[in-house]
């Protein structure tokens, strides 16, 4: 049985939105096609930092306004680019040759600088950098050195910010800071609850959870030293958004009629963007300002929306479902309401669909995800020099699930606004067969290409097409294909689900599309024949991998698996997965719980669970992709 949520999606035109004659229109710049491994950031100059996972580990990238470059590593295989400031400095974490992770600061002129770890620690990752190049993050060497928030500057090096309560079982982590140097995050208290803190040079580490919450964390810091974040106030274990002010303490911002609320971003002027959880398990994008309080931003006609980014002009971007339940990137203003960004594209590559807008700068440039990967939406101007960026390429149209020995058909379409002419399209199938030239058809700066290929063995392959114009500038798009066995006995799928807020325990405000890849034997015969088993589940900055998958049982179209795996390469995690196809021709569901055992208390600690809400007990439905259940 085949459950598919994106068949023919690339060919489907978006519905018209609330467009006015004065509405901004955008041109598309492809940034990268591999899965996101860290959320992108954009500064006022239109520069973008982001991380992608091509399959062998995360790589960090920087877009300078004209081209994308890999920022390298500290000698190892992986880099996470986590934040970007107005000077074009990038920070995050990178792996050394010996395997540990160090925080870094990167510049285009100076390359990657290792800013080290705290004394007695072995790992560090930066979380944020301000315009002065001051960095905050977390350093640890568990179990020997507990996690500690740090502050780093070029003049003072790395400083330990301490914790609200001492001891080997305590922790602190730095998450955000402003240009004045106020740092926020979370730290354990004497009763082992996690409380949001504010750190300043003059005042040190201050517990700002005046609501006496069971758990709280600071997410964003305003220009005036205000902190926004999320708090659990009682044993209902439901989150509420909060705003802390130095004079007024922590204020619960409520839920606007929902069950929970979450801060995801805040402008320097204290406008908050976030998410409201409703009792029926759906979500609404929200905005909060002091004069009006919290308001729902609605949807594009569907059940769910998330607000993820905001700029200083009060423009909010995110994801919303349309009337048919498909995810679409939106932009919202108080004057114009919510608009589907797909309706504001001009001369976009055929088949392109924007599904999530993540970040926006004050000039209105937007970083979004799409069925062709990560893209930058540049407001259109009359400046022809902006066109010199290579072809804009649409999605790779290819089945997400195929069968070994059966020819797979693939197509891709493109446009090139400077009319430099397309020189070639080459294909790579990810199975060692080498690059292959494709048939190209087109004229006047646009066209398409197609090719076909048969895979000899079941497995997971990354198919890519590279479009090169007459000036030698190339743009690549790619897609993962899961190849199942020719006969029955395989569960295979690839695509994405809508992960609800609260599912990821380390970052409860995280919400949005999460990609998955699954291939597993479902019969004893398939296992005996050596059928491969793999589960990949990728959130930005948090990647789960398992090659140890066991079928627990099946009931109708549903299969339940369990096994063990790693998060960011570290073992000791268990999982249970339930996936089913649902009604024939409809979208399937994907329910995943991941947990580990605390080494001290021996208690089960849940790391991820998208079935935590009663309305989501069967997990999340597929938003894209398909699952084949044999």
Give the N-terminus to C-terminus distance in angstroms. Answer: 7 Å
| Structure classification | mainly beta
Largest sheet at a glance? 8 strands, antiparallel, barrel
Estimate nothing, just give the exact number of structural domains: 3
CATH superfamily of the largest domain: TolB, C-terminal domain
How are the SSEs ordered, and which strands pair?
Blueprint: E1 2-4, E2 26-32, E3 36-42, E4 48-52, E5 59-63, E6 68-70, E7 75-84, E8 90-96, E9 101-107, E10 111-116, E11 123-129, E12 135-141, E13 145-153, E14 157-160, E15 172-177, E16 183-188, E17 194-200, E18 204-207, E19 215-221, E20 227-232, E21 239-245, E22 249-252, E23 260-266, E24 272-277, E25 283-289, E26 293-296, E27 301-310, E28 316-322, E29 327-333, E30 337-340, E31 354-360, E32 366-370, E33 373-379, E34 392-393, E35 401-403, E36 408-415, E37 422-428, E38 436-437, E39 439-443, E40 446-453, E41 459-469, E42 474-484, E43 490-499, E44 512-521, H1 524-528, E45 534-539, E46 542-555, E47 558-567, E48 570-580, E49 589-597, E50 604-609, E51 620-629
Parallel strand pairs: 35-42
Antiparallel strand pairs: 1-51, 2-33, 3-4, 4-5, 5-6, 7-8, 8-9, 9-10, 11-12, 12-13, 13-14, 15-16, 16-17, 17-18, 19-20, 20-21, 21-22, 23-24, 24-25, 25-26, 27-28, 28-29, 29-30, 31-32, 32-33, 34-36, 36-40, 37-38, 37-41, 39-40, 41-42, 43-44, 43-51, 44-45, 45-46, 46-47, 47-48, 48-49, 49-50, 49-51
Structure summary:
It comes from Telluria aromaticivorans. The protein is mainly beta. It has 3 domains: 34-314, TolB, C-terminal domain (Neuraminidase, 6 Propeller); 392-484, Immunoglobulin-like (Sandwich), CATH 2.60.40.650; 490-629.
């Amino acid at each position: 049985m085949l459950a598919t949520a994106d068949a023919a999606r690339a060919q489907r035109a978006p519905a018209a939105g609330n467009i006015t004659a004065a509405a901004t229109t955008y041109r598309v710049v492809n940034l990268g096609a591999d899965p996101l491994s860290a959320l992108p950031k954009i500064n006022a100059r239109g520069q973008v930092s982001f991380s992608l996972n091509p399959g062998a580990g995360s790589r960090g990238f920087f877009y300078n306004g004209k081209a994308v470059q890999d920022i390298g590593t500290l000698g190892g295989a992986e880099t996470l680019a986590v934040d970007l400031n107005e000077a074009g400095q990038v920070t995050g974490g990178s792996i050394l040759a010996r395997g540990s992770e160090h925080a870094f600061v990167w510049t285009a002129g100076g390359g990657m600088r290792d800013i080290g770890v705290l004394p007695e620690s072995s790992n560090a990752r930066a979380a944020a950098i301000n315009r002065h190049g001051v960095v905050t993050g977390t350093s640890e060497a568990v179990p020997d050195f507990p996690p500690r928030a740090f502050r780093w500057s070029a003049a003072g090096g790395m400083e330990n910010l301490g914790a609200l309560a001492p001891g080997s079982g305590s922790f602190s982590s730095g998450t955000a800071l402003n240009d004045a140097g106020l740092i926020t995050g979370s730290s354990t208290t004497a009763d082992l609850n996690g409380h949001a803190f504010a750190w300043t040079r003059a005042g040190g580490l201050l517990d700002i959870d005046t609501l006496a919450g069971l758990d709280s964390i600071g997410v964003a810091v305003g220009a005036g030293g205000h902190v926004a974040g999320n708090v659990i106030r009682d044993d209902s274990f439901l989150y509420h958004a909060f705003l802390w002010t130095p004079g007024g303490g922590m204020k619960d911002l409520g839920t606007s009629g929902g069950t929970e609320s979450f801060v995801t971003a805040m402008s320097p002027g204290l406008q908050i963007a976030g998410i409201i959880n409703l009792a029926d398990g759906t979500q609404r994008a929200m905005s909060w300002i002091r004069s009006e309080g919290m308001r729902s931003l609605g949807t594009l006609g569907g059940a769910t929306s998330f607000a993820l980014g905001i700029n200083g002009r009060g423009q909010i971007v995110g994801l919303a479902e349309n009337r048919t339940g498909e995810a679409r990137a939106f932009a919202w203003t108080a004057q114009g309401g919510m608009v589907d960004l797909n309706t504001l594209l001009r001369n976009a590559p055929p088949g392109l669909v924007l599904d999530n807008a993540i970040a926006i700068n004050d000039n209105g440039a937007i970083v979004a995800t799409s069925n062709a990967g990560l893209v930058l939406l540049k407001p259109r101007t009359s400046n022809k020099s902006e066109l010199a960026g290579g072809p804009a390429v649409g999605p790779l149209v290819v089945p997400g699930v195929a069968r070994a020995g059966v020819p797979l058909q693939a197509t891709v379409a493109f446009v090139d606004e400077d009319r430099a002419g397309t020189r070639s399209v080459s294909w790579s199938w990810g199975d060692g067969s080498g690059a292959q030239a494709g048939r190209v058809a087109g004229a006047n700066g646009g066209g398409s290409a197609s090719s076909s290929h048969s895979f000899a063995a079941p497995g997971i392959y990354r198919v890519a097409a590279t479009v090169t114009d007459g000036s030698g500038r190339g743009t690549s798009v790619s897609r993962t294909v899961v190849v199942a066995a020719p006969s029955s006995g395989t569960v295979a799928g690839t695509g994405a689900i809508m992960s609800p807020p609260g599912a990821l325990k380390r970052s409860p405000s995280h919400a949005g599309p999460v990609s998955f890849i699954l291939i597993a034997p479902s019969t004893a015969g398939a296992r005996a024949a050596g059928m491969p088993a793999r589960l990949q589940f990728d959130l930005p900055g948090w990647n789960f991998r398992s090659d140890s998958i066991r079928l627990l049982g099946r009931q109708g179209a549903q299969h339940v698996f369990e096994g063990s795996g790693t998060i960011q390469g570290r073992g000791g995690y268990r999982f249970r997965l339930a996936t089913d196809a649902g009604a024939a021709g409809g979208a399937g569901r994907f329910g995943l719980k991941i947990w580990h055992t605390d080494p001290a208390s021996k208690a089960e600690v849940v790391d991820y669970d998208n079935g935590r809400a009663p309305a989501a007990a069967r997990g999340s439905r597929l938003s894209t992709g398909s699952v084949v259940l044999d």
